[in-house]
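Retry 2 of 3 after timeout on previous attempt. Resubmitting structure tokens to design endpoint.
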């Protein structure tokens, strides 16, 4: 399977963040979670005050 959308939603601030390409690290508004990897890989990071997130990534066959 191939990644079509690499995206999460932060449960703390509600931000939806999307990584568009490899090494495209994006943080939510509150700094609780980040997404990276674009369509190449899924990477999640948490901030100083870790936040839970909702996985919104989509896959294609």
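Retry 2 succeeded. Sequence:
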């Amino acid at each position: 399977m191939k990644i079509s959308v690499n995206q999460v939603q932060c449960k703390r601030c509600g931000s939806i963040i999307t990584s568009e390409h490899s090494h495209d690290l994006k943080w939510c508004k509150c700094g609780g979670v980040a997404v990276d990897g674009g369509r190449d890989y899924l990477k999640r990071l948490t901030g100083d005050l870790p936040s839970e997130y909702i996985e919104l990534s989509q896959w294609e066959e």
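Attempt log closed. The chain has one domain: 2-60.
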